[in-house]
């Protein structure tokens, strides 16, 4: 594929101008930011929304009667409504605002699973998961005597779906699976996986941290039971996130954190918990961050998730083809259905050394195990170099990456 064939529905130059951080030099070179899977950059509209709140509307939300509190509450709760529309939730009561995917998964593990799990029960995940979709389940299994069982992946970095389905027994009380692998970019076949789990009466949690930023997500169409994601992967601030859950399930779940704002009445004898979704949102929330998350949703909606998906799909294909042509490159993760991410090794150069050399040329990539150590163990590697795309990347970024890889190869020859 030539650079001329990387055109997409997105007006790239216009979008790039919206992201002030990428319009800078690093080590004397124009920045090429290829680390969006770790944290995406933020458009000016997100930065401005946060700054405007801090300058003009800063106050605590909900119970205040003064004007600033009303303004802050409207902005904060408005963000919840934007998220509801963004993922097509049936009700705003299903949108629990959290600090990110990690807290969202822990909430389900402790509030939904811990009360019902017992010795002999199982929690089913895959070898492809991020640590945030492994460790919370290990903890709850240790607490309850349940067993964590893990579906294998193949040499391409794809879940062995037949093996996973065979593991869906009556002992499995929840299935937790990623939408898109952060380490390899694999898009998991959720419709088949979820339908099979439903046939067995198994609730499904989807780790959507790498799904929501890159493609349209409709939780009602997916038919999962929980969907977790983070603001900082989708052009928003760090410390923000969402747990979507079916209202009936959330209603039946006890809170797993206690404090202010998640209560209706407190005495020393008894506490009456607040209604959904507030019973899961203890304490003063990340108000400015959530407002920024709402602004990020606005931006993504303005550009269009289908446009973003098509743009990144074309660019990802171009990136894989260009990287593959570099002598000594070994691609890690070659699933047929991938999004946004490519991990690789260059000869026997340690990923940290390669990342440092690339940084000297203004190229920002991620190196290491990517919080997916079992994936690295599966491929017998200590880590990889990972290039990950955002809607603001273009073909020139890929060309710069390839040129930098060639220089690194020459240095180590």
Strand order across the biggest sheet? 4-10-9-8-7-5-6
Secondary-structure content class: alpha/beta
Can you summarize the main beta sheet?
7 strands, mixed
How many distinct domains?
2
Distance between the termini: 28 Å
Q: What is the molecular shape?
A: globular
CATH H-level homologous superfamily name of the largest domain: Type I PLP-dependent aspartate aminotransferase-like (Major domain)
Strand content: 15-25%
Question: Helices and strands in order, then pairings?
Answer:
Blueprint: H1 12-17, E1 25-26, E2 29-30, E3 32-33, H2 44-57, H3 67-87, E4 95-98, H4 101-113, E5 122-126, H5 135-144, E6 147-151, H6 161-166, E7 172-178, H7 190-199, E8 204-207, H8 219-222, E9 226-230, E10 241-245, H9 247-252, E11 263-266, E12 271-273, H10 287-303, H11 305-324, E13 329-332, E14 341-346, H12 351-360, E15 363-364, E16 366-368, H13 373-378, E17 384-388, H14 395-411
Parallel strand pairs: 3-15, 5-6, 5-7, 7-8, 8-9
Antiparallel strand pairs: 1-2, 4-10, 9-10, 11-12, 13-14, 14-17, 16-17
Helix pairs in contact: 2-10, 3-10, 11-14
Summarize this entry quickly:
Helix content is 39%, strand content 16%.
Q: Would you write up a description of this structure?
A:
The protein has 413 residues and is an alpha/beta fold. It has two domains: 3-43 and 304-411, Aspartate Aminotransferase, domain 1; 47-302, 3-Layer(aba) Sandwich (Aspartate Aminotransferase, domain 2), CATH 3.40.640. Helices cover 39% and strands 16% of the residues. The chain is built from 14 helices and 17 strands. The chain has helices at residues 12-17, 44-57, 67-87, 101-113, 135-144, 161-166, 190-199, 219-222, 247-252, 287-303, 305-324, 351-360, 373-378, 395-411, and strands spanning 25-26, 29-30, 32-33, 95-98, 122-126, 147-151, 172-178, 204-207, 226-230, 241-245, 263-266, 271-273, 329-332, 341-346, 363-364, 366-368, 384-388. The strands form five sheets. Strands 4-10-9-8-7-5-6 form a seven-stranded mixed beta sheet, with helices on both faces. Strand 11 and strand 12 (271-273) form a beta hairpin. The longest helix is centred in the first third of the chain and has 21 residues, at 67-87. The mean pLDDT is 95.
């Amino acid at each position: 594929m030539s650079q001329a064939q990387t055109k997409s529905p997105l007006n790239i130059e216009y979008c790039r101008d919206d992201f002030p951080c990428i319009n800078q030099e690093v080590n004397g070179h124009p920045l090429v930011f290829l680390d969006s899977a770790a944290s995406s950059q933020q458009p000016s509209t997100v930065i401005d929304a946060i700054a405007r709140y801090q300058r003009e509307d800063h106050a605590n939300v909900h119970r205040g009667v003064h004007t600033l509190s009303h303004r802050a509450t409207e902005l904060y709760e408005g963000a919840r409504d934007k998220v509801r529309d963004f993922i097509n939730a049936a009700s705003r009561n299903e949108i629990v605002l959290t600090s990110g995917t990690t807290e969202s998964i822990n909430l389900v593990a402790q509030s939904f699973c811990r009360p019902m799990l017992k010795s002999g029960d199982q929690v089913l995940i895959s070898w492809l998961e991020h640590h945030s979709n492994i460790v919370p389940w290990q903890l709850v299994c240790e607490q309850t005597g349940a067993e964590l069982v893990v579906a294998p992946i193949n040499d391409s970095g794809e879940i062995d779906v037949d093996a996973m389905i065979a593991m869906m027994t009556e002992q499995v009380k929840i299935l937790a699976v990623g939408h898109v692998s952060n380490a390899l970019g694999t898009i998991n076949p959720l419709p088949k996986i979820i339908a099979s789990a439903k046939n067995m009466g198994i609730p499904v949690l989807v780790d959507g941290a790498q799904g929501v930023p890159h493609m349209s997500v409709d939780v009602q169409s997916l038919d999962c039971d929980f969907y977790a994601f983070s603001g900082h992967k989708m052009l928003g601030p760090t410390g923000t996130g969402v747990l979507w859950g079916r209202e009936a399930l959330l209603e039946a779940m006890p809170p797993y954190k206690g404090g202010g704002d998640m209560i209706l009445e407190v005495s020393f004898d008894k506490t009456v918990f607040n209604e959904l979704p507030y019973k899961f949102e203890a304490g003063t929330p990340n108000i400015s961050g959530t407002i920024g998350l709402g602004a990020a949703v606005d931006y993504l909606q303005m550009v269009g998730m289908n446009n973003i998906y098509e743009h990144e799909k074309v660019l990802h294909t171009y990136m894989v083809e260009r990287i593959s042509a570099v002598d000594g490159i070994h691609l890690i993760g070659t699933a047929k259905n991938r999004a946004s991410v490519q991990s690789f090794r260059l000869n026997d150069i340690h990923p940290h050394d390669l990342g440092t050399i690339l940084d000297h040329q203004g190229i920002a990539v991620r190196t290491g195990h990517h919080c997916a150590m079992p994936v690295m163990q599966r491929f017998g590697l200590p880590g990889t170099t990972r290039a990950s795309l955002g809607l603001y990347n273009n073909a020139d970024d890929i060309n710069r990456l390839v040129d930098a890889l060639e220089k690194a190869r020459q240095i180590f020859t």
